[in-house]
Amino acid sequence: MAQTTRPLSPHLQIYKWQSQMVTSILHRATGIALAVGSLVILWGLVALSMGPDAWASFHAIAASPLGLALLFAWTWALWFHFINGIRHLYQDAGAGYAISTFIKASWFSIIGSLVLTLATWAYVFMGGAA
Amino acid sequence: MSRDLRNPLQRARGLGSAKDGVGHWWSQRLTAIALVVLVLWFVVLVLGLLGHDYQAVRASIARPWNALLMIAFIIAAFWHAVLGLQVVIEDYVHTRWLEVTSMIVIKLLAVAGVLAGVLAVLRIALGS
Q1: What's the CATH code of the domain at B92?
Q2: With an 8 Å Cβ cutoff, is B47 touching chain A?
Q3: Is there a contact between B57 and A52 if contact means CB atoms under 8 Å apart?
């Protein structure tokens, strides 16, 4: 870190945890996770283009316990980044900056992403296709 | 504090310290808006394909609209990912050579990813 005589803002551990802060951190974390996950989408597409054998090995790994666990985590990352991203677009337009609105919206991102994730996987398992 | 004697307008014309003005910011938002629609389409597509065999999945992606939207999704997703990862690197990697190297690696990987993905969709759509 650069040496400076300027006053610096306190480090992260000084602050009390708040929902707005958690959503901000999670937005980055899920973004990084989704960037990695996009390589899996790519893998699936390339396997599909290569033929039934390549697709079968992709499908076997994706449907394995570890594969399903990762897909579940990525589903949540996707829905969180999705909802929170829309919230950011709304805020980029200059709206929703009243403190109470801001806190409510960040809780909406957290709870909404969990609801959508559970709904998605409820559909997957009710379809009996996993 | 600042020793910069330039007029603020002069600095603004130089597009600020990032050198690209608000171009990065706008690209990130535009790809985000596109991805709102494309992600919903993608999730509905994948959920609809659950339990289908190889031929059915391939035939579905091969349909013109699906192939077109899949290519749009790949380009928008990788572009958005590069812009996001770039900011993360700029914020946290303070060793200059490592910062530049990570940036180059990520951009080349994204280009390779887009090319591989688009080629895969074209092969599926055109049946070769």
Answers
A1: 1.20.1300
A2: yes
A3: no
- Please state which architecture CATH assigns to domain A21-126: Up-down Bundle (1.20)
Please tell me the total count of domains within chain B: 1
Contact A113, A76 (CB under 8 A): yes
Does the model's pTM come out above 0.90?
Answer: no
B94: in domain:
yes
Which residue is closest to B81 within chain A, CA to CA?
Answer: A35
| ipTM of the complex as predicted | 0.89
**CA–CA gap between residue A25 and residue A100 (Å, rounded):** 19
Is B42 in contact with B76 (CB distance < 8 Å)? no
**Structural domain of B114:** 31-126
Partner residue facing B51 (CB), from A31, A41, A127: A127
Per-residue pLDDT of chain B (128 residues; tens, 9 = 90+): 567 777 777 766 766 656 677 888 999 999 999 999 999 999 999 999 999 999 999 999 999 999 999 999 999 999 999 999 999 999 999 999 999 999 999 999 999 999 999 999 999 999 86
User: From the CA of B7, how many Å to the nearest CA of chain A?
Assistant: 24
In total, chain B counts a number of residues equal to 128
